[in-house]
């Protein structure tokens, strides 16, 4: 898996209030993703090969892009309303492809990529207000270990991906003959 930004944010996505499971709405719900703080307009890249499932208004006038990456579904949230050419519902995307840009959160002095992951084993909308404590679909996953193991995009020294249980090399854009893993 690739990291969705070209840099690691200064503010850790493993600390409050940015981490998965952080308290939200005065403790009424938990944070369903990891927030990667970045300036408005920062390019966001596909973490793996996939197909765009949907694109819709998300939070504080920002948008969300849902992508089926094969072994998991990702929601790239709090992005700009305008997507790069060719990125639309039903489009195939490739690991490392520019798929969105960090958007503006109206009323807040923050901008970020809100990154969520789902196992892809449940059906229906990702946000499900009646499903505490996260108010998300039942197959929600903690993205932290996947982000920790992700290869940094554009790194000058190859940093091999760590493939977590249940994930295949092919779903991350690695194919036979690329020389990135033993055949």
UniProtKB/TrEMBL annotation:
Lineage of source species: Bacteria, Pseudomonadati, Pseudomonadota, Alphaproteobacteria, Acetobacterales
Record-given protein name: M23 family metallopeptidase
Listed GO MF terms: metalloendopeptidase activity
Domain annotation M23ase beta-sheet core: ranges: 30-120
Superkingdom: Bacteria
């Amino acid at each position: 898996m690739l990291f969705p930004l070209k840099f690691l944010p200064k503010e850790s996505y493993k600390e409050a209030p940015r981490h998965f499971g952080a308290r939200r709405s005065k403790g009424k719900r938990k944070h369903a993703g990891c927030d990667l703080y970045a300036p408005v307009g920062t390019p966001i890249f596909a973490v793996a090969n996939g197909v765009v499932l949907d694109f819709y208004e998300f939070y504080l006038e920002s948008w969300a892009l849902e992508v089926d990456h094969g072994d998991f579904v990702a929601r790239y949230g709090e992005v700009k309303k305008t997507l790069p050419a060719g990125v639309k519902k039903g489009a195939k995307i490739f690991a490392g492809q520019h798929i969105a840009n960090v958007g503006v959160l109206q009323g807040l002095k923050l901008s970020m990529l809100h990154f969520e992951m789902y196992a892809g084993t449940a059906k229906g909308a990702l946000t499900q207000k009646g499903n505490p404590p996260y108010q998300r679909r039942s197959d929600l996953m903690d993205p932290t270990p996947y982000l920790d193991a992700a290869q940094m995009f554009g790194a000058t020294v190859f940093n091999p991906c760590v493939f977590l249980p249940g994930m295949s090399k092919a779903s991350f854009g690695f194919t036979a003959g690329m020389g990135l893993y033993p055949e």
